[in-house]
Amino acid sequence: MSEFSHHELSIQLEETSEELRARWRGSSGEMDVGERLSPFLNEFLERARRLEKPMVLDFTDMELMNSYTFIPLVQMLDRVREDGDLSVVILYDPKRQWQKTSFSAMITFKSDRIVFQEN
Question: How many CB atoms lie within 10 A of CB 73?
Answer without folding.
Answer: 21
